[in-house]
Amino acid sequence: MELLDNLRLGLDVSLSWSNLLFCLIGTLLGTLVGVLPGIGPATTIALLLPLTYDLPMVGAIIMLAGIYYGAQYGASTTAILVNMPGESSGVVTALDGHQMARQGRAGAALGISAYGSFFAGTVATIFIATLSPVLSDFGLMFGPAENVALMTLGIVAVVIMSKGSIINAFAMILVGFALGLIGTDVNTSQARFNFGISELRDGIDFVPLAIGLFGIAEILRTLETPEQRDVLHRKITGLLPTLADLKASLLPIIRGTGVGSILGILPGSGTLLASFSAYMLEKRLAKQPERFGNGAIEGVAAPESANNAAAQTSFIPMLTLGIPSGSVTALMIGAFTIHGVSPGPQLMTTKPDLFWGVVSSMWIGNIMLLVINLPLIGIWVRVLKIPYRHLVPAIILFCCIGAYSISNSAFDVYVLVGAGILGYALSRLNCEPAPLLLAFILGPMLEENFRRAMLISHGNPMTFIEHPISLALLLAAAALLATGLIPGIRRGRKTVFAEAQPGD
Amino acid sequence: MTQSIRRDVSLAFLLAAFGLGVLTFGADLSMGRIDRMGAGYVPWLVACGILFLSTCIGIRALYSWRRPTDEPSGEEEQPPVPWRAVISISLSAISFALFIRPTGLLIATMVMVLICTLSQAHSGWHARLLVASFLAALAGLLFPVGLGLPIALLPIS
Fold it and tell me: Helices A17-35 and A57-82: crossing angle, nearest 10°?
C-alpha cells in the first residue's frame, strides 16, 4: 500500500540521529515556550528562522514543527498546575484541569492530557498521511485563477477566525498586502515604495517583521499587567490516572481528536477554536453537565486531544497547497523559502523525503513528549517561578540578534523595532497582527497570480467565475464571509473570544 | 467618548493616512491596463481598499457615538500603556542597531541590556551591570562561537 511505503520513507528520514536530535530540541523548546507566558511558538519560530540558514532543511523543519505541538503540551501543564496557560489553547484545559489539581488530582489531569494528546497526535499523523496526497493531486490542477480563488478563501477564513471585528481584520490584511508591495515589482522591475533606501530594494524582510509583530508586541502586551502567579506548592503524586478515569476519558479523547483534526485544517481556526469546540461538545453530550468547570476529566481529555490534533493537521494546507493556515504555518513557509523550496502541491512529488520526513517526525515528537515530559514536570514548574521581568532583556536580545543576523544589517533591527511598536499599537486598537503577517506573505503571490490570470484572460474578470474550481472556491469564500456576518454567529464569535480573555 | 470609540477613530485616521501615503508614493508608478498591469495597479487597488475600510470604521465610530449601546463589550477595559517599558525596550533595540556594526556584539549587547533594564525601577546599577555582562557573555558564546554566526565580537579596528 502506498501509504505504508510513504510512511516507511518518512521514518527512514526522521529516525536518523540528527533528525531525532532536532525533533527532541524542537519539542523540548516548544514545551518550555508553552510553559512560559508572553512568548509563544510563533515568536520562537520567528526567532529561530535566521538560525536555520545553516541547518539542514529537513532537520530545521522537523525542529520548528516540534516547537508548535510541543507548546501545546507545555501550555496544558501550566494550565492545570497554575491556572495560567502559556498558550491560548490551554485556557480551555485550565477550566477543569486546575479544578482537578485543587482537588489533589493534578497527576490524573496531567496524565490524561498527555495520553489524550499522544492519541490525537497519532491519529492526526495518519490523517495527514492519507489526506495529503489527495489534496496535492488536486492542487496540481490549479492555474493562476484557481490560485487567486484559493488564496482568497484562505484570507477570508483567517479574517473570520480572528478575534475582534471583521472589518479590522480586513484592514490588517490590506495593510499587510501594502507592506508586501515594498520592493521591486517582479514583472516590470520598477522600484516600489523604496524611499531611496537601498536595503528596501528587495522589500522588507519578513523575519524581523514577524519577530517584531509577535515577539516584541507580545512582550509589551504582557508587561501591561503586573504578574501574579500562584504556583501549586503541593507535590504531584501519581501520574497514573485511575482505571475509571481512563474509561471516562476514552470517548472524549476520540471525539476531541476528530473535532481537532477537522478544525485544524481550516485556515485560521487554530488550536483555541478546536479545544473550545471539543469542550462544548463534551459538555453537551455529558449526562451531568454541571460537573464541567468543577473538575470533570472529560473537560481535560477532549480539549487536550483536540488542540494537539489541530496543531498537526494545520500543517496540511501548508504542505499540500502552500497556503498558510495561521501565523505558525506562515512562518514555516518562510522557513521553506529560506532554503529555496516553495511549498505547494509539487512538494510531495519533488521532495518526498522532506514531506514524509516531517509528517512522520510529528508522530515521533509525540512519543518524545509523552516519555520525556511527564518526568520533567518538576523542572517546568520551577521555570515558572522565574519572574517575567528577568526574562525580558534576554528575549529582546535574542530578537535583536535574530533580526540582525539575517543579512548582518542594522536596518533589519530598525524594522524589528518598528514592527514591534506597530504590532503593539495595533493590538491596542483591537487589531490582530496575524492577518497582517499572512497577507504580507501571500500578497506577492496573490498579485503575481492575479496579474497572470488577467494577462491570460485578456483582462476579463469573469475568468474567475468561468473556471469551475475557482468558482467553487470563491463561492465557499462568500459563504464563509456571509456566515461570519450573520448576527447570531457574530455573538457566538464574541463569546468564544471573551471566554479566551484570561492569559490570552 | 468611550475607549472603544476613541480607538476606532484613531484606527480610522491611521488607516486613512496610510492609504493616502500609498497613493501618494505610488503616484509615479505606471498603471498599465487591466490585462497588462503596471507596477502601480495593485497598489492603487490596495490603497482604495484601505481608504474604504477606514471610512467604514469611521462610520462605525460615529454610529456608536450617536447610539450608545448598553451591551458592555469585553473590549472596554484596557490596562494603561506601560510607557516606561515601551520606551526602554524600543531604545534598547535601537541602541543595539546603532552599536552593533561599529563596536561589535559584546559592547552592543551590554549597552542594549543596560538600557532595557532601565524599565525595572528597583534594580541597582550593580545588578544591571551583572545581568548585562552575563547576557553579553552568553550571546558571545552562543551565537558567533556556538552557532557560527558571522557577527564580530569586538570593534573592528
Answer: 30
C-alpha cell at A449: 497570480
- Cβ contact B94–A420 (<8 Å): no
Query: Do B89 and A219 lie within an 8 Å CB cutoff?
Result: yes
Contact residues for A51 (Cβ-Cβ < 8 A; gap 6+): A402, A405, B147, B149
| Beta-carbon separation of B96 and A424 below 8 A | no
Mean pLDDT of B119-145: 79
Coil vs helix vs strand at A132: helix
pLDDT tens-digit readout, A441-451? 888 888 888 88
**Does the distance separating the beta carbons of B74 and A174 come in below 8 Å?**
no
Q: At what angle do helices A487-499 and A468-485 cross, to 10 degrees?
A: 70
Best mutation target among B53, B76, B123 (most A Cβ atoms within 10 Å) is: B53
Least confident range of A133-142, A421-430, A481-490:
A481-490
Average pLDDT over residues A151-167: 81
User: pTM value?
Assistant: 0.81
Q: Are A1 and A38 in contact (CB under 8 A)?
A: no
Q: What is the pLDDT of residue A172?
A: 94
Distance between CA atoms of A101 and A82, rounded to whole angstroms?
Answer: 9
Alpha helices in A286-351 (DSSP H): 298-313, 315-321, 327-338, 347-350
- ipTM of the complex model: 0.89
